[in-house]
Design goal:
Blueprint: E1 3-7, H1 13-17, E2 24-28, E3 34-46, H2 53-62, E4 68-72, E5 96-108, E6 111-116, H3 120-128, E7 146-147, H4 151-166, E8 172-182, H5 188-199, E9 203-208, E10 212-218, E11 221-226, E12 229-233, E13 235-240, H6 245-257, H7 259-277, E14 286-295, E15 299-309, H8 316-323, E16 331-332, H9 334-344, E17 355-359, E18 365-368, E19 373-377, E20 382-391, H10 397-415
Antiparallel strand pairs: 1-6, 2-3, 2-9, 3-5, 4-5, 4-17, 5-6, 7-8, 8-16, 8-20, 9-10, 10-19, 11-12, 11-18, 12-15, 13-15, 14-15, 17-18, 19-20
Helix pairs in contact: 5-10
Length: about 425
Amino acid sequence: MKHYINIESSLNWYNLIQRINSDHILLNDDRGNFILGWNPIDEIILPKGQFNSEKTQAFLNKNKESYIFGYLSYDIKSPETNFIPIKKDKRDFNDLHFFAANHVIIYNQKQGTYFGNYTKQELNNFLTEPRDLDDNYQSYPPIKLIAETDHQKYLTQLESIKNHIQFGNIYEMNYCVNFSAEYKDFAPLQTYKKLVQNAIPPFGAFVNTSDLCILSASPERFVRKTGSKLISQPIKGTAKRGKSEAEDKQIAITLKADQKERAENVMIVDLVRNDLSKIAKKNSVQVPELCEVYSFRTVHQLISTVTCEVPTNINFSDTLNALFPMGSMTGAPKIKAMEIIDEFENFSRGIYSGAIGYFDPNGNYDFNVVIRTLVQDKIKKTLSCSVGGAITIQSNPQKEYEECLLKLKAIEDTLC
């Protein structure tokens, strides 16, 4: 029978993962906290084009006394988006993969807790057994990501997207491009450790299954549920970090006052408010934070916080149908923006623009937005990373392209 055990010693997720030989998911933040789940006792895998919200909710209900970990692909369809065709792509990632973990370690504010069926002695054996780490990765050659949309094509596409905005078809659209590479040797865990050191993400995630690894340095939360409260924190608005403290402070001030960047953010906040209102208790949707500057290792971002209270009969699939995909990765109005995204982007987003997270036995959950993320396809031996930004009528195509490269920087620095 599963139970909780307090862990007296300090914990390091990097050391723990080296002892795991089964599927596992790590979620970690910028303060050193993490939750790690491994050894699936039950799982649901829905291949591309086969997402089913009823099956998903049935799996969650069946395993509601367990910690459940997993990811969602951007390509999953809701009743409102079923008409958008499934995009053909050389990558073929699942729509969804959730698993109920046999073992879980939670490390929060330097306090460790284990949940599972290990005895105290078995847990101690796991925590102290020798680690199995391949040090040959230090001799692996660097990997260079190659753009699948060239610079000039990007500029041309943006002008066409702005025409849609000019004609009133949309107000804002998140246009993304993909970078990829083939590899001979790749060390995902060591690379993720370096990525975390480079980016210090608040919503980091490391997913390792038989067919893929996901290395996510995400700064954005999709949705969190605590009790009856939902919180979503969309990001729109980006600026580089300064070379000096004074320059950095001025860049942050300028970003907060930038009318274009604020307009991008406010439009998505309105979209999120509308999405939440579909499932929220009457008059409970609030915006406690609007266009606040959050600073990360390589960028400043404008982040807003939108909250609501939900009735007890609203389940995760209801929330997903109302909110997913997240407005920050689509545009406004959402459905039309998704149609135009499908028209202009030359790749299937797959896991990018999706979400990674977990559910606890109390019915709470927390999911990030899959951005600033590297995906390893173990079968085809390829790596991919997508980046993008919000396009409005005020967008300068060259500056938008430079913002994409800025967002790619933490990943590129990790691979070099």
